[in-house]
Design goal:
It is built from four helices and 14 strands. The chain is of the alpha/beta class. It folds into two domains: 102 residues, 3-Layer(aba) Sandwich (Oxidized Rhodanese, domain 1), CATH 3.40.250.10; 105 residues, Immunoglobulin-like (Sandwich). The radius of gyration is 36 Å and the shape is rod-shaped.
Length: 249
């Protein structure tokens, strides 16, 4: 009997040792599964483009400064947590954060992430950079093609008169003419060059040949359109015209 008890005890002990050696490791969170939530840094241009009605614009500079137009709230960068009730309830709403120079907004952005917000965007350089961006826009000037219409007066059928337009780049960037076309084969446009440096102006010559079709379609008072397209986002398309009273002799 003792021998059976000893054998049984030995088997149980052996099983216990085996189970202890192969016990499963505690469940831990793999580092690869941890999402590293970060905020986005935006330039003044990118920041400005994202200011829409569906975002939350937050000024965190202290002392309080003149706010960017459309600002939804002013909360000091070090008082974000205790003013959480003034923040959007929706944790996924886009939040645009700014201060004066960018330092306070970086701290505030980190705090917003810790509160569970998932779409936090920080203005690089703060309101100083944004004000400079707006100033540059005001200084930018315009890209123009003048005059709007060139009147060729009376044109004898068979003659090929020319009109001249001035393309002036008053902006602060290089502008390329990406496409130049006309409304009719009787009209052709020839810009002096296709790339204009800031402050540069060129001449665009336009020829008009009413006899090109060989019929009477280009007789009488006529208007033809010149189309110019550029790579400048604010001055993408132009339409200028020439007019003429074409007569046969």
């Amino acid at each position: 009997m003792k021998q059976q008890i000893l054998i049984t005890f030995g088997v149980v002990a052996f099983i216990a040792i085996v189970l202890w050696q192969y016990k499963p490791a505690p469940i831990t969170t793999s580092e690869s599964l941890v999402v590293d939530s970060t905020y986005q840094n935006l330039s003044a241009l990118e920041f400005d483009q994202q200011i829409t009605d569906d975002v939350f614009l937050l000024d965190v500079h202290i002392p309080e400064q003149t706010h960017i137009i459309g600002t939804d709230a002013f909360i000091s960068f070090d008082k974000i947590e205790e003013n959480a009730d003034r923040l959007p309830e929706d944790k996924n709403v886009k939040i645009l954060v700014y201060c004066r120079s960018g330092n306070m907004s970086e701290i505030a952005s980190e705090t917003l992430l810790s509160l569970g917000y998932t779409n936090v965007n920080n203005l690089i350089g703060g309101k100083n950079a944004y004000d400079q961006y707006l100033l540059e826009i005001q200084k930018q000037g315009e890209l123009t093609i003048t005059p709007d219409n060139q009147d060729l007066g009376t044109v004898i059928y068979g003659d090929v008169p020319e009109a001249k337009f001035t393309i002036e780049n008053g902006t602060n960037r290089v502008v390329n003419l990406t496409r130049v076309s006309t409304s009719c084969g009787c009209t052709k446009a020839f810009p002096a060059k296709e790339e204009l440096n800031p402050g540069e102006s060129i001449t665009m010559k336009v020829t008009f040949d009413p006899a090109v079709h060989g019929d009477a379609t280009d007789v009488g008072v006529l208007t033809r359109t010149i189309y110019v397209e550029t790579d400048h986002p604010d001055f993408e398309k132009f339409e200028n015209t020439i007019t003429a009273n074409v007569i046969r002799q």
